[in-house]
Amino acid sequence: MDTKVINVQADFPILNQQVNDERLVYLDNAATAQKPLVVTESLDKFYHTDNANVHRGVHTLAERATAAYEAARSKVKNFINANEAAEVIFTKGTTDGLNMLASTYGEQNIHEGDEIVISIMEHHSNLIPWQQLAIRKHATLKYIGLTAEGELDLVDAAAKITNRTKIVSIAHASNVMGTINPIKELANLAHEVGAIIIVDGAQAIPHIAVDVQKLDVDFYAFSGHKMMGPTGIGVLYGKHELLDQMNPYQFGGEMIDFVYQQKSTWTQLPWKFEAGTQNIAGAIGLGTAVDYLTDIGMESVAQHEQQIVDYLLPKLVADDAIEVYGPKNPQKHSGVIAFNLKGIHPHDLATALDMEGVAVRAGHHCAQPLMEYLGVVATARASFYLYNTKEDVDSFLNALTETKEFFNHGTSKAK
Amino acid sequence: MDTKVINVQADFPILNQQVNDERLVYLDNAATAQKPLVVTESLDKFYHTDNANVHRGVHTLAERATAAYEAARSKVKNFINANEAAEVIFTKGTTDGLNMLASTYGEQNIHEGDEIVISIMEHHSNLIPWQQLAIRKHATLKYIGLTAEGELDLVDAAAKITNRTKIVSIAHASNVMGTINPIKELANLAHEVGAIIIVDGAQAIPHIAVDVQKLDVDFYAFSGHKMMGPTGIGVLYGKHELLDQMNPYQFGGEMIDFVYQQKSTWTQLPWKFEAGTQNIAGAIGLGTAVDYLTDIGMESVAQHEQQIVDYLLPKLVADDAIEVYGPKNPQKHSGVIAFNLKGIHPHDLATALDMEGVAVRAGHHCAQPLMEYLGVVATARASFYLYNTKEDVDSFLNALTETKEFFNHGTSKAK
Amino acid sequence: MGLAKLNNLYREVILDHSDHPHHKGQLAVDDVSNEITLKNPTCGDVINLEIKLSTDDIIENIGFTGDGCTISQSSASMMTDAVLGKSKDDALKMAKTFSDMVMGKQHAQADLDELDDAAILSSIVSFPARIKCATLAWWALQRALLNQNESGKDNVKSS
Amino acid sequence: MGLAKLNNLYREVILDHSDHPHHKGQLAVDDVSNEITLKNPTCGDVINLEIKLSTDDIIENIGFTGDGCTISQSSASMMTDAVLGKSKDDALKMAKTFSDMVMGKQHAQADLDELDDAAILSSIVSFPARIKCATLAWWALQRALLNQNESGKDNVKSS
Ligand SMILES: Cc1ncc(COP(=O)(O)O)c(C=O)c1O
Ligand SMILES: Cc1ncc(COP(=O)(O)O)c(C=O)c1O
Q1: Given CB atoms, is B322 within the 8 Å cutoff of chain A?
Q2: Which of B172-188 are b and which e, b meaning 16 or more Cβ less than 10 Å from the residue's Cβ?
Q3: Which residues on A lie below 8 Å from C134 (Cβ)?
Q4: How would you classify the pairing of strands B234-238 and B88-91?
Q5: How many angstroms does the Cα of residue A203 sit away from the middle of ligand 2?
Q6: Beta-carbon separation of A254 and B61 below 8 A
Q7: To test ligand 1's pocket by mutation, which of A277, A278, A279 has the most ligand atoms within 8 angstroms of CB?
Q8: For D144-154, how does the pLDDT look when each residue is reduced to its tens digit (9 = 90+)?
Q9: Quick check: C134 contacting A, CB < 8 Å?
Q10: What's the mean pLDDT in B183-195?
C-alpha cells in the first residue's frame, strides 16, 4: 500500500494505545475520525494567542480571530471548489445543515402535492427532516430503491423523479452499504424536471475529492468531525442564488442589518445564516484538517482506502459464515463495510472484537428503513480511513476468526 | 482585591502577550472569555485518548467518550442546580437555545392575539426570534422599559405582563447596561398570569451563582464560550415537563426511537433535542470550565468583579468627558460598562485604546433597539472577568486619558 | 488472548438462556393485563413483554417476543423465570435490585439471591457498553407493571 | 507610547474632513437620480448618499448624510470631493482603485492621484479593523451608481 499515506500513523497519538490489553485497531471511522496533532495544535494556538469573538470588535485579537475564521472558510471553498466563499456556511454538522435546508428552502418551496425524493439508504439525518416536512406540507416522500447488487437503482430514480418533484436529497456515499452514488446523473435527473438536488456528503468528503461545481449540486452538507476536524463544526454549501432567496434559519447576533422593535432586515451571505457566536475554533480546526488532507492529497487517500477494500472485501465475501451487505465488487465499494457473522448478534460480535482491541460499530447505523429493506435488525460495520494499515486489516480478520471460534466452541469447550 | 482570584492570570497564556507593543489588557469579556489551560488540555486529552462518537458504539473508546460527554452534562446540572441531568440540553450557544425555544415551545404555544413580553435591553438573540415568531403568529411583542437609573422597570413589567401573555423572555444580565435583572420577581409575574419565563443567561452565568430552581425559571439559555469554555457549545436548561411536551427542533441520528419510511417516534430527554453528532469535545471542555469556576467559587468571582466595578465606575462617572450608560451605583452594576468619550466616536476610541494594548468593544453590541432607546448610535464597552486586575483598570484609565488628549490636541499640536 | 475475558460475560447459563429462552412467545390475547414494547435505541433491539396479573396483583403468566443480542435475550429469559409467581411489588423490588446490581451498587445477598439466574449478569459491570442490553427486559417489566408507556409517562394521560 | 502610531491614521487632513465634512446634506428631492442607504453592520455606522447624474452620466451633484466615526465621515467627505464632476464610469473606476488601495494592492500612481485627498487613507492598511469604515462611502457610491440595493442586487428585481 501507498507508504506515503501509511506513514501518517505517528500524527495520531490516539492510535498509539492499548485497549483491553490489545493494540487499538480503530475501525469506526464512519462514526467519527481521529484527529491529527496539527488539528489540536491549531485549536490550542487559537485559544492561547488569538481568541476573541469575530466580526464584532475593532481590537487586534478580534481582527486576528476574524481573519483566521474567514481564512478557514476560504480553505473549505477551495477544498470543494465552490464558486465563492460566501457559498460556504458554517454549521454544527451534517444534521444541522440538512435541518436548516428543510426549515428554510423546504419550508418555502414545498407545497401540498409536491414530491420529495430520497433513497432507501439514507441516514436518518437525511431522511426524517424530509419526512417531517412532507407530513407538515401534505407532500409526498418517495424512496429510490436498490439494485440486486446493492447499488442505487438509477432506473428507479428516473421513474421516481417526476414533474412534481421539487427536492431530490441523496447521500453521496452510504454509511452502511459502502456505495458511492452517481450524484452527477441524479443532479441531471433533478434539474431536468426543475427540482434541486441536495447532497448529504458526510461519508464522501473525508474520502474522495469533491467538486461541487463539477457535480452541479445545489446544496452539499458535511461534518467536520468525520474528516479529522473538531466536533461541533460542519459546512453547508449552497449555490449563491438559492441561498440568497432563502429566509434565515436562526435569528440573533451578526446576521442582521437593521433591527427595529417590530421588524428586522438581514445581512449578506454567508453571515445571514450564521446567527450568534459560531464555533470559531471549530472552523479554524476544520481549516487545518482541510490543509492536512490537501497536503496528502485526496487521490492518495482514496487510493489507500481502495487498496484496503481490495484486500479485505474478497476475504469477507468468500467466508460462508459472513454475510456482507452492499456491493461485493471491491471497485464499487468504499471503505465502509457492513456485515454479519451468521448466528451471532452484531452486538455480541462488537463486544468480542473490542476485547481484541478492534473497534467496530454494531446496530442500525441510523438507517432503520434500510435495515428493514435489507431484512436485518442490525449489522456490524467496519470502516477505514487513511491511517488504517494492512496490519489493522489482519488484526480484524484474526479477531473475526477467534470470535467465530469462541461462540461456536469457546465456552462450550469449558463445559 | 481578592488575591486568590487575581492569582489565576498564569492559567491564561493568551494574556501574557504584547499587542501593538503594549501589554495586552483584555476588556472584551462580554463578547467572549479567555480559556484557562485546563480547558484546552481537556480537549487535547479527549481527542488524543478517548475520541469516538457517543451513544453509538459498544467499543471501549465509544464507551469512554459517552461517559465523558454525559459526565459533562452532570457537571452543568450541578452548576445550575437543575433537578435532573435530562433537563440539560447541549446546544451551540445561547442563540441556538433561544431559537430552538421559539421554533418549538413558541411555535406550539403562541397563537393569534397572544402576547410575548421582552425588555428593551435584550440582545438581538433574545429579541429577533420572538419578533419573528410574533410576526408569523400575528401575536404582539411588548417591551418592558427602563427606569431613569437604567434598570429594568418592574412597574412597567407588571403592566406589560397580562392575561394574554404566554412567554416572558428576559436577559439575566444586560450585555450593555451592566444591570442584573430581578428574575425571581419576573418569574412570579409571569407565573401569576400562567405565562412561562425564559431567561437569556449569557451574561450572568459566567459571573454569578445561578440556581435555576431557586429562580423558578422555566428555561435558561447560555453559551460556553463566555464562561471560559470552548466555542460552539452552550446549554438550554428546561423544566422536564415542558421539554417533554415540546416537539423536537432538529431531526436525525440519536434523537429517534423508531423510524419508518413515512413516520417516526422520538427518544427521551435530553437526547430528543440532540439530533446528530453533538459538539462532544466542546461539552467536555465546558465541563472542565465548570470545574474550574466551581473550584474558584462563583462567590469569589462575583466579589472580585464587584471590587473592580467599585474602583472603576465612580472614576468614569465623575469624569465630565465621559458618559456612562446604565446604573451609576456600583452596587447595581456588573462588570460590563458601556460608555462614550464625548465628541469621540466609539470606533475611533476603540482603535486608540487598541494602540495602547487595551481591547474594548465599540458598536451597537447587538442591541440596536436599546441604542435607539438610549438615543445613541453606538457606545464603547469595557467588560471584566476574574483574570482582570487593578493594573488592568489603571492601564485602561491611562489609555482613556491619553486618547482624550490625542483627539483634543495630539495631531493639532503637530500642525 | 483478549477473548478469555469474554468468558466472564458469556457464561454457560447465559448462553443456554439465549439459545433456549424461557417464556418466549405471546400470551393469549385475553390473558394480557399489562403490556409494553421497548427498544434499545443504540442498537435497535426490541422487546415486547406481556404480563397476566391476577386480581390480587400476582404475576400469573408472562411472555416476551423480540429480537436482540445474547445478553438481552438471556436477560429477558432469566427475568421471566425470576418474576413468575411473584407479586407486583416484589417484582418491582427485584427490578430495582437488578438495575442497582448492574450499575455496580452494593446489595444485600438476600436481594441478589431473589434474582435467581439473573444475578449472574452482575458480570456486566465490566462491559459498560452492554449494561443497556441487560436492563432492557427489567426496564420493560417495570414500565409494564406501572402501566407506563415507553417514555415513562403514565399511559392514561397520553397527549 | 502606543498612540504615536495613531498619527499615521488620524492625519490632519482626515480630521479636517471629519470636523468639517464637504457635501454633507441632502440634495433637492427633484435633483436625486441615484440614492442608497448603507450600513456598516459591525458598528452601526450609516451613510445615506444622494447623487444627481446628468443625462450624459456626469455626477453633477452629490450629498451624504449619516453618522459615523472619524474615518467613515472623512472618507465620505473626501469621496464626494473626488467624484464630483466626474463621469459615472470614471467614478466607478475610482471606487475600484480605492478599494484595491485599502486592501494593500498595488496601483499606478496616476490612479491614486485621481483619488485626490482620499488617497491619504492608504494608511488604513495598518488598521485592518477600520478598512470597512473607510470603504463604506465608496461602496455606497458604487451601489448607487449601479442602481443596486443594499445587498448588491439590482433594485428592479426586488423580490
Ligand atoms: C445577553 C446576551 N444574549 C445572547 C448572546 C448571544 O450569545 P451567543 O453569541 O453565544 O449565541 C449574547 C452574547 O453575544 C449576550 O450578551
Ligand atoms: C451518511 C450520513 N449522513 C449524515 C450523518 C450525520 O452526521 P452528523 O452526525 O455529523 O450530523 C452521518 C453520520 O453519522 C452519515 O453517515
Answers
A1: no
A2: bbbbbbbbbbbbeebbe
A3: none
A4: antiparallel
A5: 7
A6: no
A7: A277
A8: 999 876 555 44
A9: no
A10: 98
Neighbour tally for B207: CB within 10 Å:
29
The amino acid at A348: D
Contact D111, D134 (CB under 8 A): no
Min distance D45 CA to chain B CA atoms (Å): 7
Q: Burial, B260: exposed, middle or buried (Cβ in 10 Å; 0-12, 13-18, 19+)?
A: exposed
Computed over every residue of chain D, the mean pLDDT equals 89
Averaged in consecutive runs of 10 residues, what is the pLDDT profile of chain A (415 residues)? Answer: 72 97 97 98 98 89 96 98 98 98 98 98 98 98 96 98 98 97 98 98 98 98 98 98 98 91 94 97 98 97 97 98 96 97 94 96 95 94 97 97 86 39
- Tell me the percentage of chain B whose pLDDT exceeds 90: 93
pLDDT-above-70 percentage for chain D: 92
Model pLDDT for residues B121-180, shown as the tens digit of each residue: 999 999 999 999 999 999 999 999 999 999 999 999 999 999 999 999 999 999 999 999
* Shortest Cα distance, chain B CAs vs residue A279, angstroms: 4
Spatial separation of the C-alpha atoms in residues A189 and A155, rounded to whole Å: 11
CA distance C54 to chain B (A): 31
Minimum CA distance residue for ligand 2 atom 7:
A94
- What is residue B411's predicted lDDT score, i.e. its pLDDT? 47
Q: Mention every residue, 6+ apart, whose C-beta is less than 8 A from residue B232.
A: A92, A232, A233, A278, A279, A280, A281, A282, B92, B93, B224, B225, B279, B282
Domains of chain A: 3-27+297-409 (3.90.1150.10), 40-295 (3.40.640.10)
C95 membership: H or E segment, kind and range:
helix C88-102
Query: Of chain C residues 14-73, which have a CB less than 8 A from chain A?
Result: 15, 42-46, 67-72
* Beta strands at B25-26 and B358-359: parallel, antiparallel or unpaired: parallel
Which residues sit with their C-beta closer than 6 Å to ligand 2?
A: A 30, 93-95, 123, 125-126, 171, 175, 200, 202-203, 223, 366; B 253, 276-277
Instruction: Please tell me the distance between residue D139's alpha carbon and the centre of ligand 1 in angstroms.
Output: 30
A106: left (phi over 0), alpha (psi -120 to 50) or beta: alpha
Judge whether A43 and A284 are in contact, CB under 8 Å: yes
Residue A355: which of C2, C69, C72 has the nearest Cβ? C2
What is the rounded CA–CA span in Å between residue A219 and residue C90? 58
Which cell is A24 given? 487499538
pLDDT of residue D4: 84
Contacting subunits of D (3+ beta carbon pairs below 8 A): A, B
Using a CB-CB distance cutoff of 8 angstroms, which residues of chain C are in contact with residue B62? 129
How far is it, in rounded angstroms, from Cα A58 to Cα B221? 27
* Pick from C1, C7, C14: nearest CA to C119: C14
What pLDDT sits at residue C142?
A: 96
Q: In chain C, what are the domains?
A: 3-145 (3.90.1010.10)
Contacts of A293 (CB under 8 A, 6+ apart): A79, A206, A227, A228, A301
A366 carries an active-site annotation: yes
Q: Please state, in angstroms and rounded to a whole number, the distance separating the CA atoms of residues A279 and A329.
A: 40
Ligand lying nearest the CA atom of residue B198: 1
Q: Provide the pLDDT for residue A57.
A: 77
Closest CA to A65 of A52, A77, A56, A74: A52
In the predicted structure, residue D56 carries a pLDDT above the cut 70: yes
Residues from chain D contacting residue B368 (CB–CB below 8 Å): 44
The helix (H) or strand (E) run that includes residue D139 is helix D131-145
Residue among C129, C152, C153 minimizing CB distance to B63: C129
Contact A346 C43 (CB under 8 A): yes
Does residue A276 belong to the interface with chain B, where contact is any CB pair within 8 Å?
yes
